[in-house]
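User: tokens in, sequence out, please.
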């Protein structure tokens, strides 16, 4: 322990409450192993001890999310970089070592050993302030959207139990007027007593567009059901509460969308990214977060590969040309290009024609959309490389 090595490899099994770190030398012998609280002073003390072991330390971490944020920031502050060793790799490499025990100490030893033997792991960059802000905002927005979906599904389920005709009458995931209606009226009898004229006025006073049409549809559903079902009163209260929650959540989503838009447009490349049809500020922000530093992508093919848009071969023996979808790629980055391609099909004629051509060649719809997303990744990479905005030329004509 007293002899200072030239190089050591330090693996860290990150966790919410504590981390476990192991340092190994060139032979794989353990030089240092300790549990570290996820606290600044404890982490700094451990980093100091590991850095004293050798002149050069190679760091490897199995998590690059929130639980390792403080650790990675402290490493960056000391001029150190860490690579990301995926959990799938750790799991498979564990089988190459003796024993079947599953402990933090053994897992982190595998992380350090894997980093010692391989040099192709991606380096984890501590995001700049703007990228960190966008990461938090987009993650928060995703959580709100998921919560909204759960609320709408619960609302429709409860409403079906007391008033199925009204549940069928509107799409509550996108019809604000229908949600406003449910905050005040949830049962057939109450709607019939209110009448069309007074119901229309009530909706109009609350800013509902097409109040008369909403009232007419609701009353038509009310006329179709004359039976009061068990639990109707309690269910009506629950429906009103759920509708109010969805409306409040919509207001929160509008505020966070504005915050994302304002934050994203302060990015130096925001105008270029947003100029590509189908790439609005929200998808643009998700692209900045998921893609990271574009200098890490040598060419457009590397960007498309990171998004899982490039097939991988599985050849063996006489089997050649056997292509499959990749399993290891950034799901968020793929979603960005896939969703932007879907949007551009709706809004842009050339992209729609491209997909129709692919369908005529025998591709399924998903395959055609993935092909378009691959082209769009190439176009966006070229635009960012050249520092120019997208022109009126259709993206499918650009070089891949």
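Assistant: Sequence out:
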């Amino acid at each position: 322990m007293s002899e200072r090595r030239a190089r050591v490899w330090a693996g860290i099994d990150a966790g919410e409450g504590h981390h476990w770190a192991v340092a190994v030398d060139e032979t794989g012998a353990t030089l240092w192993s300790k549990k570290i609280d996820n606290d600044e002073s404890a982490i700094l003390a451990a980093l100091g001890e590991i850095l004293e072991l050798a002149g050069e330390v190679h760091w490897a971490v199995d998590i690059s999310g929130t639980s390792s944020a403080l650790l990675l920031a402290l490493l960056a502050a000391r001029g150190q970089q860490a690579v990301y060793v995926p959990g799938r790799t750790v799991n498979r490499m564990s089988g190459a070592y003796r024993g079947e025990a599953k402990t933090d100490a053994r897992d982190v030893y595998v992380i350090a050993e894997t980093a010692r033997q391989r040099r192709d792991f991606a380096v984890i960059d501590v995001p700049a302030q703007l990228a960190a802000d966008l990461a938090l905002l987009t993650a928060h927005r995703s959580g709100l959207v998921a919560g909204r979906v759960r609320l709408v599904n619960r609302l429709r389920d409860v409403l079906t139990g007391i008033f199925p005709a009204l549940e069928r009458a509107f799409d509550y995931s996108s019809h604000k007027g229908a949600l406003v209606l449910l905050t005040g009226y949830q049962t057939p009898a109450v709607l019939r007593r209110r009448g069309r004229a007074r119901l229309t006025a009530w909706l109009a006073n609350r800013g509902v567009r097409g109040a008369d049409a909403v009232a007419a549809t609701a009353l038509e559903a009310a006329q179709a059901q004359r039976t009061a079902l068990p639990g109707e009163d309690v269910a009506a209260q629950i429906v009103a509460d759920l509708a109010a929650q969805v409306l409040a959540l919509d207001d929160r989503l509008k505020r966070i969308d504005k915050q994302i838009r304002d934050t994203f447009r302060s990015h130096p490349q925001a105008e270029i990214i947003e100029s590509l049809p189908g790439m609005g500020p929200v998808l643009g922000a998700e692209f900045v977060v998921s893609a990271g530093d574009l200098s890490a992508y040598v060419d457009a093919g590397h960007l498309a590969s990171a998004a899982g848009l490039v097939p991988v071969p599985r050849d063996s023996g006489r089997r050649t040309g056997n292509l499959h979808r990749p399993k290891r790629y950034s799901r968020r980055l793929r979603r960005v290009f896939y969703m932007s391609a879907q949007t551009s099909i709706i809004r842009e004629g050339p992209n729609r024609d491209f997909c129709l051509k692919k369908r005529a060649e025998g591709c399924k719809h998903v395959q055609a959309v993935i092909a378009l997303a691959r082209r769009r990744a190439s176009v966006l990479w070229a635009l960012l490389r050249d520092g120019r905005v997208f022109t009126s030329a259709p993206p499918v004509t650009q070089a891949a």
